[in-house]
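Before the break, one more example. Copy the sequence into your notebook; we will annotate it together after we see the structure.
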Amino acid sequence: MKSNHDQKKPQSAATSSRRKFIGTTAVGGAAAAALAFPMVSTAQTTTNLRFQSTWPAKDIFHEFALDFAKKVNDMTGGELKIEVLPAGAVVPAFGLLDAVSKGTLDGGHGVMGYNYGKQAAIALWTSGPVFGMDANMVLAWHKYGGGRELLEKLYTQIGANVISFLSGPMPTQPLGWFKKPITKPEDLKGLKFRTNGLAIDLFTAMGAAVNALPAGEIVPALDRGLLDGAEFNNASSDRVLGFPDVSKVCMLQSFHQSSEQFDISFNKTKYNGLPAKLKAIIQNASEAASADMSWKAIDRYSTDYRDMAAKDGVKFYKTPDTLLQQQLKIWDDIVAKKGSDNALFKEVEKSQRDFAARAMKWDMDTNNNRRMAYNHYFMKAAPKKG
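Here is what the structure looks like once it is written out:
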């Protein structure tokens, strides 16, 4: 009788081959899987960029700068980190362009009108009636109508080593804050007044004694009597900066700055050294921040406008048409003079004019009269008694 041991048959060649195949396949499969799904390194180098705004930390404009930085930081997932400092943290507000150009700062958030002294054409993006266009239409001209190329040409001319992204269309700015209502153009004569950009030339021609001051210095100057009147920008900024504490009269509507927008700038050398992916994120974040800013502005500005009247005792008045018409006439004289000996100024102004002639006609012919709708819903006459 054979033992169980004796009954075991020798391993066949087919079985041995099959086991080798399975083992080899398992090893090969693991290797293939490793090739198909490589391990992702968790190590990551963060590029830090130091930004400064031209705004006090409490101003909503500084908040807009922080909003832009957060969008970039979130979208890059930590690869790029923008740190935003308030005005004066590194350089004064009016020194931002030079600081970014030299690399003292990696970038900044401001307005081009603050750099008016370097080349008057800069202020055409931010000052004046711009042929009736609002700030969003100016941004359309900038991106699709040749403005961006002209700005690059301008920066090259003045030797500014920066790359710029325009963002955030601003509503028409008030004529300003005064001790008493402005009822006619002559009321501006002799007034010590704050503004900036080409609006300096405009108000000077209207008889005011103009002083350009950064945001944080305006209200203290009004309080000490160094200014008789001033404009800054919008209801939220004006309220938080303290304008209602030193004046109760605000004149709405003006052609001195009906089209301003923010300038998000980077040191060109620093920006060009970034990977293509990060540069694309910055560009798209500036446009996302532009849309978000315009939506937030509608909500916040309208709230503060209401509250200044209801809680702070501010009286709002519409600027007289006679003064607005005079602004347009004086503006025509200013741009004609500036363009007579500044070829780039003339080129920018003509480019805006050509775009506005087309865009403004389309806009006015296409869009409804909003005042008519507002009056229908909110200004109905009270029912007669009896």
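Residues 236 and 301 are 5 Å apart (CA to CA). Confidence is low (pLDDT under 50) at residues 1-42. Try to locate both features in your own notes.
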